[in-house]
Amino acid sequence: MNTVVSGIRSTGNLHLGNYFGAIKNFIEMQKSNNCFFFIADWHSLTTHPTPGDLHINVRRVLAEYLACGIDPEQATIYVQSDVPEIAELYLLMNMNAYLGELERTTSFKDKARKSPDNVNAGLLTYPVLMAADIIIHRAQQVPVGKDQEQNLEMARKFARRFNTMYKSELFPIPKPFSFTGEFVKVPGLDGSGKMGKSEGNAICLIDDEKLIRKKVMKAVTDSGPTEMNQTKPEAIENLFTLMDIVSEKDTYDFFNDKYNSCEIRYGDMKKQLAEDIVKFTSPIREKIIDISSNDEYLRKVTAEGRDKARASASETLKEVRKLIGFKSF
Ligand code: ADP
Ligand code: TRP
User: Fold this and answer.
1) Whose CA is nearest to atom 8 of ligand 2?
2) 281 and 299: one domain?
3) Residue 137: DSSP 8-state
4) Does residue 55 share a domain with residue 11?
5) Relative to the CA of 130, which ligand 2 atom is closest?
């Protein structure tokens, strides 16, 4: 049985990218592994949510996790800030993380470029906190989407460095994991590469039918193919990729054949795609609404998750302190 850790930042509603990049794997993995799935509320502080929003955001992701089928009977579900052991490990790991390597990560450079007024140290050391999240439970596997590859590579580096420095094998070297063997990147429908909260192009699990139809119908297309079997431009390829993810194979093949024979009508394709997304998200949406109002259940899940996560985390931390040389008098 492997130990598995993954988290999602509490910065907005979960979208199809989060689902197909991460959560789908969580649901599969929880059946036969020791899984820890958490809500990364410390990570969300890099963008300074207001005190009022912070809790609402955490609560929202929690309800969405549960509605998707992450099962507290099978996996440990917790809120990152409920486990102070992670913060201590983060502090310790920071001593062996170097400015140069942190500055070179693409996610840091991207964020620094997008928000030059808010290049805080939390942003810089984001990969260190992420590494602490993972190695605190001595995880072997981390289900994440393709965009997290580099952060995970940093976590592997920090784990290896600690082991070497203290001549130990305390930390397994965590591997990214995907059931299909491929790391999914769910595209946006605005002609850009990735669906994401910060990209403002996300179709969220909580979106109602009307909104989903509106978002899909607005998807960027072109004037249509002019030659048989021609290569698809990026925006069109994205539409097909999304259809490949949410629709039946026959549906995908039907529209793909139409494209190849230059008979495609994008309007029909989008209508079908919107219906297929609605079919997929509607039951989840109902559950989100239902679970969100169940305070007692949310309290119980997070209290049990916190206790289990802390028990696991404090065992690791005890070993870490010993290796570093902390001793009690
Ligand atoms: P966002 O990009 O919307 O801010 P997060 O960074 O919180 O989302 O991502 C949470 C998880 O969802 C990560 O494992 C990430 O890899 C995955 N993920 C997010 N967007 C996508 C996407 N478009 N395709 C695949 N996986 C994604
Ligand atoms: N960095 C991840 C994201 O933006 C969220 C995250 C934080 C995470 N800690 C993690 C994912 C640990 C996997 C494991 O989506």
Assistant:
1) 7
2) no
3) T
4) yes
5) 9
- Ligand 2: residue whose CA is nearest its atom 14: 6
| Residue 155 Cβ contacting ligand 2 at under 6 Å | no
Q: How many domains does the chain have?
A: 2
The answer to pTM > 0.90 is: yes
Task: Kindly state the percentage of the chain with pLDDT values over 70.
Answer: 100
| pLDDT at position 240 | 97
Q: Give me the mean pLDDT over the 242-269 stretch.
A: 97
Residues 156 and 221 in one domain: no
Output the residue whose Cα is nearest ligand 2's atom 2. Answer: 8
Task: Tell which atom from ligand 1 comes closest to the C-alpha of 187.
Answer: 23
Print the domain residue range for 258: 206-289
Lowest mean pLDDT among 147-161, 174-188, 267-281, 294-308: 174-188
Q: What is the pLDDT of residues 115-141, one digit of tens each?
A: 999 999 999 999 999 999 999 999 999
Residues 80 and 224 placed together within one structural domain of the fold:
no
Return the SS3 of 77.
Answer: strand
| CATH number reported for the structural domain that contains residue 82 in this entry | 3.40.50.620
CA distance 277 to 258: 21
Asked whether residue 146 carries a pLDDT value surpassing 90, the answer given is no
Ligand 2: nearest atom to the Cα of 143: 13
Q: Which string of b and e fits 167-185 if b means at least 16 CB within 10 Å?
A: eeeebbebebbbeeeebbb
Residues annotated as catalytic (active site), given as ranges: 111, 194, 197
In contact, 272 and 250? CB cutoff 8 Å: no
Tell me the backbone φ, ψ of residue 264, rounded to 5 degrees: -65, 140
